[in-house]
Amino acid sequence: MSSSARIRQPAAAVVDGVDVDAVAVAVRACPGVDDLYRGRPGGPATCLPGRWVYGLRVDPHVLEVQVRARWGVPAVEVAVQIRHALRTLALARRVDVIIADLADPAAPELDHSAGKVPITVSGQDQ
C-alpha cells in the first residue's frame, strides 16, 4: 500500500451536538438495560452516514431513548439509570425514556464467543 493511501475514518456520530455513539454506549452500560430497542417503524432512530442507530432520537430539546429492559428491574430504576448515565451527554436536553420491551427472564445466556446457543428442554406436560 502506498503512503498516499487514505484510511477511511468512521463518520462523526454527532447530531445537534450530541455524540450518538457515546449515548448508545452509555445506555447499553446501564445495569437495567438489555439493549436499545428498534421497535416499530416510526420509533426513535437516528440516521447517520451509512447506518442507523435505532432506539435513539435527538431533537433540540429532547433526547428520546427506547430500550428493552432487563427482567426484574423496576421501570423507574431503569429510567433513573439512563438519565444519570446521560446527564452530561444530553447537553441539557430532557431525556425521555421508553421501555418498549422486556428481556425474556427464561432465556439462556448466550456464549457469543463460541457461536453456540445452549438448548433447554422444558419438563412441562403437554
Automatic annotation (TrEMBL):
Top-rank taxon, per record: Bacteria
Protein name: Asp23/Gls24 family envelope stress response protein
